[in-house]
Amino acid sequence: MDSYLDIQVLPDPEFGEDTLMAALVAKLHRALGARGKGDIGISLPEHGVKPGARLRLHGTAAALQALEESNWRKGLRDYCTCTGIAAVPAVTRWRTVSRAQAKSSPQRLLRRSVKKGWITQQEADQRVRDMRPQTLSLPYLNLTSLSTRQPFRLFILHGELQATPVAGTFSSYGLSPTATIPWF
């Protein structure tokens, strides 16, 4: 992780910042999936309640150059600006950026457990009274599954700051629960 590039979503009267960022991440997901190398991670440096307007890609200069040569942002170039590939400044902090998923539907989870034979219907009926849906207060992007075409929220968790980097691979969303990216 010696290089990075920033992509800034521009204000647009027709599309909201969240919509454009979701479209950008969806295109990135397809490009990273096609690459299949797991060598590029992402972060949202301006994240808060919302993801923010900047997407930062982290990787080696060669990996980022190969991604950029694939023309993956085609169709979105009018809606964002991109810096050139730059060297990561001297940093002393790293963090994981991973996907978080809430157990938001206890009924669905219990139906699945009954179907799999892990519990009986009577046990499920008793447990459902005690279970509460879990909610997350993390930045998220509204995406659509490529396989099922179902909409879903991709919640993004920026982990605690760490003093040392951890090597690893990233998913096709550029996320990892273990591999770190430099934080600056």
Task: Offer a few descriptive terms.
184 residues; 5-stranded antiparallel sheet; 4-stranded antiparallel sheet; globular
- In DSSP terms (H or I, runs of 4 or more residues), the helix count works out at 4
Largest sheet: 5 strands, antiparallel
What proportion strand?
Answer: 25-35%
Name the quaternary structure.
single chain
What is CATH's topology name of the domain at 3-100 and 157-182?
Answer: Alpha-Beta Plaits
Taking pLDDT < 50 over at least 5 consecutive residues as the criterion, the unreliable ranges are none
Whole-number mean pLDDT: 92
Q: Compute the gyration radius: what is it? A: 19 Å
Structural class: alpha+beta
Number of strands: 9
By CATH, the architecture of the domain at 3-100 and 157-182 is named 2-Layer Sandwich
Summarize the structure.
The protein is an alpha+beta fold and 184 residues long.
What report would you give on this structure?
The model has no long low-confidence stretch (mean pLDDT 92). Strands 1, 2, 3, 4 and 5 form a five-stranded antiparallel β-sheet that branches. The protein has a four-stranded antiparallel β-sheet with strand order 7-8-6-9. The chain contains four helices and nine strands, in the order βαββαβββααβββ. Helix 3 (106-116) runs antiparallel to helix 4. It has helices spanning 17-35, 61-69, 106-116, 121-130, and strands at 3-9, 41-43, 54-59, 80-82, 86-87, 94-100, 140-144, 151-158, 176-182. With 184 residues, it is of the alpha+beta class. It has a domain at 3-100 and 157-182: Alpha-Beta Plaits. Strand 7 and strand 8 (151-158) form a beta hairpin.
